[in-house]
Amino acid sequence: MEIDAAALKSKGFFQQAQKDKFSLRLCFSGGTIDTDCLRKAVEIADKYGNEQIHFTTRQQIEIPHIAAENVESVQKLLSESGIKTFIGGPRVRTVVACMGAAVCKFGQIDTFALAKEIHDRYFGRELPAKLKIALTGCKNNCAKVEASDIGVRGVKDGYQLYFGGCFGHETRIGTPILPVLAEKEKVLDAIDRTINFFADNAVKGERLGRLLDRVGIDQFKKTLE
Length: 225
Hints:
By secondary structure, the chain is α+β, with helices and mostly antiparallel strands. The chain is about 35% helix and about 15% strand.
């Protein structure tokens, strides 16, 4: 059986070390999954995987050990359930978020609501390179927002934004270029401007931090202002 691993990856199936096995990665904004979807994930793991579920570092569900011949059946189950799969590659990735003010007593902002709004606006948008966004509700910084391309941290008077962070092959700490923003609409506007700046100026494979190092913070700051 000939396997088009690249095509399957674009649909959320990542080839394992075992060439005939795939890990299915599901997509949920802010790491929040409703119980119906969770039951369906368990059903897939029991029926087509090895009865195990893995939670990724970016709060997504991964179901390993799905045989290539079962991929089509799994895709049918996902379609019937309305569950979306993770999309990798050079585009906006799923949004990471801590529990925030809706749950955590330390939370200064509603991270769940903001994560969903950002996810609905931008998830999957194609860009010159991947772009990761993270939200954290307070100074405890559970979501480690400085390690993402765009980070939002709740503070006493509103939102502190960080730009250009990354963690992986290279490590770069995000920079707080703007003052604290008091209104959510200004946060969304800053994210919109950042993504458009990135789309217009980055070269293929260049993360936001590298772009800022190349063109200079001042040019980017003018875009935000």
